[in-house]
Amino acid sequence: MIKEVIILAGGLGTRLRSALPDIPKCMAPVNGKPFLQYVMDYLEIYGVKKIILATGYLHEKIEEYFHNKYKYMNIEYSREDEPLGTGGAVKKAMEKAEGKQVVVMNGDTMFRVNLGKLYDFTLIKKSDLTMVVRQINDVSRYGAVEFDETGRITTFREKGSLEGPGWINGGTYVIRKDFFLNESLPEKFSLEKDYFEKIYLQHPIYANKCYQYFIDIGIPEDYERAQEEFRAFEF
Fold first, then answer.
1. Are 28 and 37 in contact (CB under 8 A)?
2. I want to staple 87 with a disulfide (CB 3.0 to 4.6 A). Which of 39, 43, 45, 191 is the partner?
3. In 47-100, at which residue ranges do the beta strands (DSSP E only) sit?
4. What whole-number distance in Å separates Cα of residue 28 and Cα of residue 5?
5. pLDDT for the residue numbered 14
6. Is the pLDDT confidence value at 34 over 70?
7. Residues in a beta bridge with 155
8. Are 85 and 191 in contact, with CB atoms under 8 Å apart?
């Protein structure tokens, strides 16, 4: 079982800036608790032992709140001195990982993936890189992911290029550490555009379908929706 998780927690939250000045997006309060705390509570259910927080903008706000431990989970920080993009942030944080495989997820998204089933899927596929995908009613905000009957990703569709139902990148991945770090990667790059959307043609990326609860608080409407929906969560 995977015991380490990298959480991307360096987002600027520009679309939420009017409602949340001077606070990282992942620390947006939901019913009196930072959004990131709900994500960590969810990880605790699956026996995660170590969290690596890839921080940047106002990193001190996160460190002052969580310090180096949350419940029984150890926390390490991978701090960006300047924005490295999602890929650069993962690359820097991955160097602190101890295991062979690491879960990577977004700190501003709650996707209640069953990590046990995700790990089993990764083993069955012998996958170096697994992306969890979520079916939604309108993919225009996110872009779409298409895959064949084996789960291998065949196409990435640009944001806004399609409308209607489909599968999106849910922002949760399992990545084999040596596979990722052995790639010739720049210091700054986008995990999605500069890595996933190029490597899938030469190396298989597998899509693991998940139908569980999903919310991304990147826009004010969904941030407000989280206030109501998170009241139903029990950890």
1. no
2. 191
3. 50-55, 69-70, 73-79
4. 20
5. 61
6. yes
7. 146
8. yes
